[in-house]
Fold this protein.
Amino acid sequence: MPYKIYTYADPYRISQTDFWEEIKHYPQLCASRTLVNGLLHVMGNEIVSLLCPLDDIVNHNRVFGEWTKNVSLTIQQYSEIGRIYRNWHSCGEPKLTDNYYDALAHNKSSMLDSVRLFIELGIRADSLEASKLNMEHRVFVYLLKILEKKALFRLPQMPSVSGLKELIQIQAEDEKREKEERHEGWEDTETYRKELEIIDRMIESAKTWDGLHLVVHGIHQFTPLQLKFLEHLDKLGVEVIFIYNYLPEFKEIYSSWNYIYQQFDAPIHHDGNIRTYMPVGQLQKTGNAIACNMAWLCEEGFSRGDRRIRDNYELYKDERVQKFDNISEYAGYVSDMFGEAVKEQEDELPARERPFQKKAGTSSVLARMKDVIYTANKEVDTLLQVYYPEYARNRHFLAYPIGQFFLALYSLWNVENREIDMDFSLLRNCMNSGIMSGYQAEQLLKTLMNLEPLFLHISSYTEFKQLFEEYIRSYKQVEKAVSGEVAFPFRRLNLYHSYKVPRKEIEDLYHAICKLNEYAAQLFGDVGADEQFVFDRHFKRLREFVSGKQTSLANEEEKDLITKLLSRLDMVQKQIKSGDKGTLEDLKSGLYFFLKQKEEPVADWFVKNFEQIDGDVLNSRNQNAPGKKRVYHFACVSDRDMNCKVDELLPWPLSELFIERAYMPKELAFRVYYAALGERSNFLRYALFYGLYFSQCDTKISFVK
């Protein structure tokens, strides 16, 4: 069944288009959760069918969830690539040199990402021309040829029409469950009740969906799995109707949309009811004037001296683009604004209640910030999570000391010696974690750093024990030495100074490192250098170890974190097949992937990406009401942040040159995906235009120099 493509000019009035009556009863899958929220806000009672993010369907366990969310599967895939590399290195074809083997092993995660990408796109190795490729590209093709035959790298079967109907019903129920969980404590508000009424209509509509038509809202940057799912719908006979915003007077700004959607080989129908956008009952905003000029100056043959450009310029000539000298200054600006919002929230409480009040949620604090910030560069997130860790709701485990502890412990273990190595930086992560029961993390870390010179010339645990036992004995001699004795001058050295490094703290550090070696031996000690770890047995031990440490942690946040870690370990244990094996390096790579996984992303964070602009802007009318003046701040709009090369978006070793030499694109999924990659910069330009043009709030633009 052919695709359909509809466009609308005014995102606030989609329900007034000439195609709304046709599509309103079909399930509607959106580019993002923010777009879902924005459409719910402006359309309200016009929503009568399921409205949810497309990725919630694509990543559901009944579609690709076993591929995208199965941590165990990815660990096993890491392990399989590692096994193939080791075979090539020892005796295989191609024969790898030591240096090349080390390079491949170091970049194994990127290679896995590349393999998974081509499998998701449905590109087989025999369709690639490898004769003109360099070494790493030939290795990739050869590896893909091996892996695509293995069940471990096979995509799950997608649902039939009946299965799809069930999935739509399940998703509608999940929307209600998610709404109830996120709004716990606010059930009596009028807004909440109206939202539940809409969701109840979604649930009833999902029960009667005929499985013949489905709508996809506002997707520009398609992912391979989204495209594979849409192709599957087409094969099932489900008519997919794409809709997105389009203003005919600004053809160049919207040119990337036309380029991407022409790949679907379907005519584009522009709404005939509402042909342009006019802010209702308001004067033109400066942002709207900037957006118009930005778009017109992109049009071929448009003169800078045109009267419309001059008139718009008069509206914003006093506006200034804000400059930050570096990313730290930009992060500090956001941090100060967030800190003011936190203080404002706290100051509203009576002083006697503040000690007993729970920490405010991220959403409520962000609602008090003057700026709603969107950034083309997400580097600032890392800094902001350090500034306000208690509000970092989507941090991964590696952002916490406990995550660093496990990563360090796996890196410290020496399989051949069956003991830990002495790597000072890794030991710091372990001592700072709070996992070492019976010791204060802060004191262990301080002692370790004071004694750093002792670690410079030792590499093994055996050497550590010999050196420290001798050092503790000599410390006692120096401590008791009196004037005239040989040991007396050493009392002036920092290493023997009782105020700098007390003997008890030295002994505590010694015993803590001994205990650390015991922990590692519990997890790894029964596997020798020439043996492999049985994954299910190892993760069972890891779970027992983590569970045993939960009650010893005083920090409530880390207790909660361990609860989540245990839940995920339970999931991994269920997914691992009995008898699956791998090396310590495989375990380390898999654990890194496991720990860096974030909780489900949330829409309300310090700074948002440009993909969230389209949905959030639909809330701007409400946010521009008296007493709610917000500013939509579009940040990081420098050339460096706005201009993206295809090579920067592809995982190693893939590149634009590789694709040009190796592959003649034929499949629809690849053509659309690759077109979207090439248009990434134009998408960012469009998103900036959209935010400026449609926002009913004041706007601001900034960049990092």
